């Protein structure tokens, strides 16, 4: 018997585009939610054109990465018939997800507050770049700069550097999913005295890339708060731990991540660095931070003498955290993935609908609205 997914019967109307919102919608779809993606008829989600590479159907890899497990309908909100279809979809949804600029929906006669007031079960989540009161467009690269990430990314003597993944978008998408799940749980509980405007506000969710990125500074932010100083760039090293960085073996790079003093002793034994291991000044991490250059130089010299796999085996046998710097194809060869569905669900969900072509399910949704999923039947693959 097929296992029931936790969000089956939950309806998510995805009005978002590009990355953060679509990722959120896809995660909820992985968990069994019925997700309808609404797009502009003239081109749809702009990430459909963000390539190459494109698959055999002409869809960009970027779009494929965040849009499985959804139906697609193209709606022109300036057309009365399409406007009415969207209103009907909103009225039948459990959750509406959007990333429109401030005031856009209201100008179209689609005020989230009015829908929330009319439906005590509706949840509405808006993802923005810089908060609910800002009209600034939210692009990951800009947010990485303004959230402080780039000031701490890159080599110490190099330029500020962004991460290789649009991680501010990814974090905001995951934060939105968490907020939506919390609201769904709260919806099934007594209101505990919430009424009127307060009850509406509890179901009106706002997530911003800037807030998600700033919150993700975690220990780096706390370092600044405690020390009163601006954190600096450490490249592949760690501000508070030594050794915890990249080393070049004879054939390829690897990382060694000593997280406590017992691991330090084991690391010295694995690398046969007897003198370092015997130094009383280095037994505690605080001492190793003070003598960072000496420790790192000695380890780098030793690691360069053998191949990375040899060191991996020696370090791992003694419980020292370490890892090869692998390419993306190397990673993909070991994890569940496919050219159409992308990576395996990170939340334990399943792939059951391929990423849709623009308006692929338009006629079906126009005729049946949310019952379109029933018309598709079980095991549909898009």
The proportion of residues forming helix, as a percent range, comes to: 25-40%
- Oligomerization status of the protein chains: single chain
Radius of gyration: 25 Å
How many DSSP E strands? 11
Beta percentage is 5-15%
Overall average residue pLDDT: 94
Main beta-sheet strand count, sense and barrel state: 6 strands, parallel
Our measurement of the CA-to-CA distance between the termini, rounded to an integer number of angstroms, reads 22 Å
Low-pLDDT regions: none
Shape descriptor: elongated
Q: Please report the number of helical segments.
A: 18
Supply the helix-strand structural class.
Answer: alpha/beta
How do the helices and strands follow one another from N- to C-terminus? Answer: EHEHEHEHHEHHHEHHEEHHHHHEHEEHH
Task: Give your account of this protein's structure.
It is a single chain. This protein is 40% helix and 12% strand. The longest helix is centred in the middle third of the chain and has 21 residues, at 167-187. It starts with 10 loop residues before the first strand and ends in a 6-residue tail after the last helix. It is built from 18 helices and eleven strands. Strand 2 (34-39), helix 2 and strand 3 (71-74) form a beta-alpha-beta unit. It has 382 residues and is an alpha/beta fold.
């Amino acid at each position: 018997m097929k296992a029931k997914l936790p969000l089956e019967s939950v309806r998510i109307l995805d009005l978002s585009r590009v990355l953060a919102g679509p990722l959120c919608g896809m995660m909820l779809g992985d968990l069994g939610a019925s997700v309808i993606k609404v797009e502009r008829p003239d081109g749809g989600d702009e990430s459909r054109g963000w390539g190459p590479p494109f698959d055999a159907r002409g869809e960009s890899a970027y779009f494929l990465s965040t849009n499985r497990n959804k139906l697609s309908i193209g709606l022109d909100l300036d057309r009365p018939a399409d406007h009415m279809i969207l209103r009907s979809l909103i009225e039948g949804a459990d959750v509406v997800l959007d990333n429109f600029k401030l005031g856009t929906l209201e100008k179209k006669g689609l005020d989230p507050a009015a829908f929330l007031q009319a439906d005590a079960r509706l949840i509405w989540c808006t993802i923005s770049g810089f908060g609910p009161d800002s009209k600034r467009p939210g692009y990951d690269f800009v947010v990485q700069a303004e959230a402080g990430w780039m000031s701490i990314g890159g080599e110490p003597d190099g330029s500020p550097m962004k991460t290789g993944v649009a991680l501010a978008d990814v974090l905001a998408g995951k934060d939105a999913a968490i907020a939506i799940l919390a609201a769904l749980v709260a919806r099934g509980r007594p209101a505990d005295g919430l009424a009127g405007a307060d009850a509406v506000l509890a179901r009106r969710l706002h997530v911003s890339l800037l807030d998600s990125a700033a919150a993700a500074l975690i220990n780096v932010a706390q370092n600044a708060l405690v020390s009163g100083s601006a954190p600096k760039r450490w490249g592949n090293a760690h501000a508070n731990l030594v050794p915890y960085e990249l080393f070049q073996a004879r054939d390829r790079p690897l990382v060694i991540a000593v997280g406590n003093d017992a691991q330090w002793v084991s690391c010295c034994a694995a690398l046969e660095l007897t003198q370092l291991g015997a130094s009383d000044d280095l037994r505690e991490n605080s001492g190793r931070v003070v003598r960072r250059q000496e420790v790192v130089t000695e380890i780098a010299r030793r690691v360069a003498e053998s191949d990375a796999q040899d060191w991996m085996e020696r370090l791992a046998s003694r419980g020292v955290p370490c890892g090869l710097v692998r390419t993306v194809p190397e990673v993909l060869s070991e994890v569940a993935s496919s050219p159409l569905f992308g990576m395996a669900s990170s939340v334990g969900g399943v792939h059951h609908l391929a990423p849709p072509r623009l308006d692929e399910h338009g006629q079906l949704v126009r005729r049946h609205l949310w019952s379109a999923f029933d018309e598709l039947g079980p095991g549909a693959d898009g």
